[in-house]
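check this:
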Amino acid sequence: MPTKIVVIGMGYVGIPAAALLADVEGHQVVGLQRRSKRSGWKIDVLNAGESPFKGEEPGLDDLIARVVKQGRFHVTDDVDSLKDADIILIDVQTPTDTQHVPQYLSLKEVSHDIGKRIKKGTLVIVESTVAPGTTENVVQRIIEEESGFVGGEGFDLAFSYERVMPGKLIKNIVELPRVIGGITPRATERAKQLYQKIVKGPIRTTTVLTAELSKTIENAYRDVNIAFANEMALVCESLGVDVYEVRGLVNELESRDMHIPGAGVGGHCLPKDPWLLRHGLYEYGEWKIEPEFISLARRINDHMPIHLAYLVENALAARGVKVRDATVTILGVAYLEDSDDTRNTPAADLMLALQARGAKIRLHDPFVKEWELTTQEIEHDIVKASQGSNCLVLVTKHSEYAKLDLGKLKNIMNTPVLVDGRNVFDTEEVKKNGFEYRCIGKVGARHSH
């Protein structure tokens, strides 16, 4: 009998994990996906043997096509597929609200679904990033209440997180170290045996709480480092110094690794995982410790799209144009270069900030077809997007933008203004083409704090 694995949630984590597991001899993998207007279309696309991702994902297209053709992988919205599962992976989103409190609606719903249908002896693995303590205090409790089983006896439960990112979905799952924490040694060992079939990197085993903390601290660490780079960019701007030159000088010392500043931090993980870490430290109305550093870093990084809007206003004013009278073309809707992932993209806050100032917005992205935050068309033709525009503002470092014909664009724009949120362009080259230019970390204009 093949091992039946159900992967709940067909997103950037669930799809590559399911496909890799389905490529293992003896596995029968079912993807469980809610058929909603937003994401239900993925069911039909995946069952046709195609990837729903439009960015570059080496190896994924061929892998999905192969396992679907072999009959080892299919996707459904039928929750009863959980009934005879030997292993269940939970890969649903765990967002935070405007007050930075985790919203576990999906996580709780699937935990109830599992508890009502789980057979004795099933291994459940939470791969979604959660606040420390969630696997045992939320998922385990719900499954126990619904099933009547005791965790560690009637079913096994573990937490093990992915380190995926668009463009490296397969590579990161297969090659990067894997951390596993089970509620019992047996649960940990069972999860380890599963991941050994697809992970070539080292597998580290620990407690559930340590594994949960490792994930949130890992992303908080990166967020804090980016925030430092962003604040130093603002410092350099205010003094008329090039932060990228400073960064190069600092990083000549091997023990230094100053990160790259930019238009903001996006994606599903970094904007929320520090808040998940913070939430795990709040219990019964009291803080075990108030993590001020990561909260400050979040505020700095959230400010960067707003600062970019200020640079747009500043550059337009230098050419005698008021932002309320301007048409501004945003270059890049995805949060990450050469991907179609728009989750928590800095382009959202930039768009809202410019609209609040009265600007008319156009959107351009070579990969994104639709964006749930707006019904506005996303242009794929850079000439059409630039025609009659007063300003181009680059948010995402798509490869296409480094090849722009600035001379041609200048001739079709109403005002040649270029604001660079990712240091894509050479200052002298841009100015030589007649543009008013601003770049995060380079401009001498007074900063927006």
Q: What stands out?
A: The domain at 3-201 is CATH 3.40.50.720 (Rossmann fold). Residues 208-239 form the longest helix (32 residues). The chain is about 40% helix and 15% strand. The CA atoms of residues 95 and 399 lie 29 Å apart.
